[in-house]
Amino acid sequence: MLRKVYATVFGNLAGRYVAGGYVQFTFRETTPSDKDFSNLVAELSSELRALTSDSGESSFHADSFSLGTDICLVIYQSEKAVACGSFRKHDSETCELKRMYSKYRGAGSYLITQLESCAVIKGYKRSVLSTRKVNDNAVCFYERHGYSKVSAYGKYVHASKSVCLGKSLAT
């Protein structure tokens, strides 16, 4: 259903030009228990553990996922799962991005565009997230996509290793 609404509102933006040519991506809305989503999140957790000594798993609980307010997406390239991400309700106007991971050039940009578009459809006006300061690639990625530092929120208020970022969403 969301895909039909999205296509009507935003058109088909299922591709991205990257060095070497045009790459076709598609996305599928799913749940945290989906095999492709779970496998990609496991890869993300492993990479985060190696980079930061923390997998980030304590910040995302599949059992708290709510179909009415939250979204999980898997991005595919040639039917292969290459990226995943989700958002959950932070407050009535704000969603929080969670478990963003891409292992294919351009898929992360496509993913964040899809997540933000889905958030707008669900009525969110703002997006926030937290990542580790040491994760320079993630911080730079989010800044390139219009995110800037915001006041720490929730469990991150006293987390000196984290940086919180936010962005107003186009409505």
UniProtKB/TrEMBL annotation:
InterPro entries named in the record: Acyl_CoA_acyltransferase, GNAT_dom
Leader sequence residues: none
Gene Ontology terms, MF aspect: acyltransferase activity, transferring groups other than amino-acyl groups
Lineage of the species this protein comes from: Bacteria, Pseudomonadati, Pseudomonadota, Gammaproteobacteria, Vibrionales
Species of origin: Vibrio gelatinilyticus
A Pfam family hit: Acetyltransf_1
Residue ranges constituting the N-acetyltransferase domain according to the UniProt record: 25-170
Name listed for the protein in its UniProt record: GNAT family N-acetyltransferase
